[in-house]
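Reading a protein record of the kind used here takes only a little practice. Each token is a code from a learned vocabulary of local backbone shapes. With that in mind, consider the following protein and its fold in token form:
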Amino acid sequence: MAQVEIKIPSPGESITHVELTRWLVADGSIVRKNSEIAELESEKATLMLIADESGKITFNAPEGEMLEVGAVACVIDTSVAPEETTVAEASESEALVDAPSGEKVEEVVPPEPEKKPATPEKSPTTPSESTSYDEVKVTPLAAKMMEENGLSVEDVIQGLRRLRGEDVEAAMSAGNLHNPVGLRQPVSRESRRERLSSLRRKLSERLVSVKNDTAMLTTFNEVDMKPIMDLRKRYQNKFVEK
């Protein structure tokens, strides 16, 4: 039984630990070579753990655990190889039929006859069922196009129908009605704590560090410009004349 160890790759310089965020496959399942099996997260980036070989995978670490670079995350048993037969090969083998002479002959499947689309018959509408389009707003451009092509409002919005009592009852039975103001359920204010990922934790540390260690100042310099404005008014006319 050949065992292949899948180790944690290095995401970059100065990174010694990564967090195994989640497994993308189940423990004991069959994986294929070069497939993604886990998601890793470091202080700088998120990367995927790739299967080096095909076989049965066995986890060595749970989700959320911090692992050193180079540590064994899982083991793949290559003696249990996945099935190589694909769906395309299976369908192709079914299409080939052995002839009496031993030669393989492709089975000829007759083409299906073309089906003509059935034209729905228009059911006559009675005056009581006719829809009123008095409240339909038609833009000038739409009215011009309808006039040029000989269309009416009913031709354009055909397929729409009025709401019936059965539709309202169906909506009520399905529970799609909004709760009245007096019967609204109270909003839940429950909170939960979740562990920060390595990347988010590092970002939070950097943001707090910048706020505490960096001087963020705004400087205002006030200058009395009245003498300069007086000089400008005194010599403005002479300057313009030149």
In short: The domain at 3-77 is CATH 2.40.50.100 (OB fold (Dihydrolipoamide Acetyltransferase, E2P)).
